[in-house]
Design goal:
The chain is α/β, with parallel strands linked by helices. The chain contains 10 helices and 10 strands. Helix 9 links the parallel strand 9 and strand 10.
Length: 290
């Protein structure tokens, strides 16, 4: 790890947010550290709203969980649980979305799960070259077809890790996943709906009602954003949301954010647009979470 996320002025004892990285995927270390590095070059004061986005957030970065086998993913659950036991907010920076499944294991079972993602991630099983890249640990370890980046939400649902869930900005999935979502009460708010007339206001109202008085876990897959502003992802699906739409939806959350993550950035050479967007999104999340 080079620079820690955002700042190095707080100790663990002084902090109310503890950040950590999960090095899952071929480019995960480079990508997670790119977010950390970008966070040092963003103004914490938002001119438009006249807010200091970090006025209540005291962030301490404990570094990375390095994985030598898939059994090591249990350390994501243990780390998240330890942070919660200290009364602090866990903030995970991850390579692939599989890490979220293991962070959720530490959360209370009545949590409301909000996932900003271009993809449903509700397949029963799946494998392709992209999943191998995202969930890669080493040459000798086979990727699990059942539990991986494309299936993690399905199995989190099957194992009842949350009370209710919404996937926001989704625009990629097959018929079987849509049927599963409807049958199991997982709300899919498509990006096309968000971008339609009055669609953003309608979605904000839904999230407000869904989260009011509840504990919330927020997972941000960077590919929810349009590839024109977030090119450094594995699956750059067109018709994504803007940062403005994201901030309005975050503002609509009326519950208490008890855990959060930012995942699936894939660093590309000579382009820092996506990591700056990811870091700025973290600032926005922390403003409402602390």
């Amino acid at each position: 790890m080079g620079r820690p996320l955002i700042t190095n002025i707080y100790s663990r004892e002084e902090s109310n947010v503890i950040a950590f990285g999960v090095i899952l995927g071929r480019k995960a270390a480079e990508s997670v550290n790119a977010i950390r590095e970008a966070s040092w070059f963003i103004e914490v004061f938002d001119i438009a709203s006249k807010r200091n986005l970090l006025e209540r957030a005291r962030v301490y970065d404990i570094g990375d969980i390095k994985l030598t086998s898939y059994d090591d993913l249990e350390n994501v659950t243990k780390t998240t649980s330890s942070i919660l036991s200290e009364g602090k907010l866990p903030l995970m920076l991850g390579g692939g979305h599989l890490a979220t499944y293991h962070a959720l294991k530490a959360m209370p079972k009545d949590v409301i799960l909000l996932v900003f993602d271009a993809h449903c991630d509700l397949r029963e099983s799946y494998m392709d070259e992209k999943i191998v890249e995202l969930d890669y640990i080493n040459e000798s370890t086979m990727i699990d077809k059942k539990l991986n980046d494309a299936t993690w939400l399905r199995w989190a649902s099957e194992e009842k890790m949350f009370k209710k869930a919404a996937v926001i900005g989704v625009r990629s999935g097959d018929e079987e996943q849509l049927v599963y979502a409807k049958k199991n009460g997982i709300l899919l708010i498509t990006s096309e709906k968000l971008l339609s007339r009055n669609g953003l206001n309608a979605a904000a109202k839904i999230l407000s009602n869904l989260t009011k008085g509840r504990k919330v876990y927020l997972s941000l897959d960077i590919d929810v954003f349009d590839p024109s502003i977030a090119p450094a992802v594995d699956h750059p699906e067109p018709l994504g949301i803007s940062f403005r739409e994201f901030t309005k939806l975050i503002k609509s959350i009326k519950g208490r954010i008890v855990g959060c993550d930012v995942v699936c950035l894939r660093k590309i050479p000579d382009n820092e647009v996506t990591e700056f967007l990811a870091a700025r999104a973290i600032f926005e999340i922390l403003y409402y979470a602390t």
